[in-house]
């Protein structure tokens, strides 16, 4: 049956089942609540940090913003990942997620550099004010909140078998770690006035942590948007998987590219030259189904069937 001009090939949507809808809701729920918690913590720590004279707590507030950015990217991924392809977007809308990552990551890099500069200047010119005791409470609240959020998000991610939600859980855990560092620094400043410089030191350390996270977000998004291939071990594993399928000979010219965090794949395989067209088609379909079952982030696979050259 011929397709109409400019029509979009229909693809089955495995996300339309009741179980998939429930999983989608679960992923959205934990991410939205995480985003709200991160927003509240960021505002809370920023206000206490500025009024309580703690550069480290202000830097930690920005770290919470980095988690908020991750939450936003995850939400975009969940939303746009469920939008079907249309006449203007044949491969869907997932690259909107990648563009968001890059923009938000660049913003975070600028903020991290500014925080590091301010902390370094405070240390160099010895312009440091002793933080007030209320900043300790803010750091403790942050640690407890982020650890609870980490455990819940990780549990949901494992239940849904969602790599992006599990990764988001670890972002919550890194925020808890930075809050622990802030708390230690603040305790030192309360022990002795001679140790007030520790607040600026911790602020500088947290700024570097934010810069590292921001660079990872930005560079990862940039690599995906210019069609950088997945790691070589992922490619080799896929080739071995294809070789294992009955009837497949010499898989080659394997190409992969990212669309958002998903992967589109193309591969050439050789089959015995005397088999029927239907048999070759069935082998190609089997290879496609096997790859998508093995790699859950693979959205589509194009399999080109060729006659065995030495057959």
Can you describe what's shown?
This protein has helices at 18-51, 55-80, 95-125, 134-160, 163-191, 197-225, 232-243, 277-294; strands at 249-259, 262-271, 298-307. The longest helix is centred in the first third of the chain and has 34 residues, at 18-51. 35% of the residues are buried. With 311 residues, the protein is mainly alpha-helical. Strands 1-2-3 form a three-stranded mixed sheet, with helices on one face. It has two domains: 18-225, Alpha-lytic protease prodomain-like, CATH 1.20.1510.10; 232-307, Alpha-Beta Plaits (2-Layer Sandwich), CATH 3.30.70. α2 runs antiparallel to α3 (95-125). It is 66% helix and 10% strand.
Helix content: 55-70%
* Major β-sheet annotation: 3 strands, mixed
What is the 3D form?
elongated
How many helix segments? 8
| CATH homologous group name of the largest domain | Cation efflux protein transmembrane domain
What is the total tally of β strands?
3
Helix and strand content put the structural class at mainly alpha
CA radius of gyration is 25 Å
Strand percent estimate: 5-15%
SSE sequence, one letter per element? HHHHHHHEEHE
Name the average pLDDT. Answer: 82
Walk me through the topology.
Blueprint: H1 18-51, H2 55-80, H3 95-125, H4 134-160, H5 163-191, H6 197-225, H7 232-243, E1 249-259, E2 262-271, H8 277-294, E3 298-307
Helix pairs in contact: 1-2, 1-4, 2-3, 2-5, 2-6, 3-6, 4-5, 5-6
In short:
This protein is mainly alpha-helical.
């Amino acid at each position: 049956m011929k397709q109409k001009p400019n029509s979009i090939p229909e693809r089955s949507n495995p996300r339309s089942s009741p179980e998939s809808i429930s999983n989608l809701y679960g992923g959205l729920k934990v991410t939205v609540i995480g985003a709200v918690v991160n927003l509240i913590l960021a505002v809370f720590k920023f206000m206490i940090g500025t009024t309580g004279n703690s550069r480290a707590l202000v830097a930690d507030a920005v770290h919470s913003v980095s988690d908020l950015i991750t939450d936003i990217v995850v939400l975009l991924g969940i939303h746009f990942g469920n939008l079907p392809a249309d006449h203007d977007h044949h491969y869907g809308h997932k690259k909107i997620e990648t563009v968001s990552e890059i923009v938000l990551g660049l913003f975070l890099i600028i903020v991290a550099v500014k925080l590091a500069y301010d902390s370094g200047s405070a240390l160099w010119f010895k312009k440091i004010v002793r933080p007030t005791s209320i900043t300790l409470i803010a750091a403790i609240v942050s640690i407890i909140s982020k650890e609870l959020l980490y455990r819940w998000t990780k549990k949901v991610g494992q239940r849904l078998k969602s790599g992006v939600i599990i990764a988001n859980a670890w972002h919550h855990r890194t925020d808890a770690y930075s809050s622990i560092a802030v708390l230690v620094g603040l305790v030192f400043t309360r022990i002795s006035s001679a140790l007030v410089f520790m607040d600026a030191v911790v602020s500088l350390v947290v700024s570097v942590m934010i810069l590292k996270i921001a660079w990872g977000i930005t560079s990862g998004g940039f690599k995906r948007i210019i069609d950088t291939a997945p790691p070589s071990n992922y490619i080799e594993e896929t080739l071995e998987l294809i070789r294992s399928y009955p009837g497949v000979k010499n898989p080659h010219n394997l190409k992969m590219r990212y669309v958002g965090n998903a992967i589109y794949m193309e591969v050439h395989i050789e089959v015995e030259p005397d088999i029927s067209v239907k048999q070759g088609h069935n082998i190609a379909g089997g290879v496609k189904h096997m790859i998508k079952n093995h790699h859950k982030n693979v959205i589509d696979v194009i399999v080109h069937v060729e006659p065995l050259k030495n057959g």
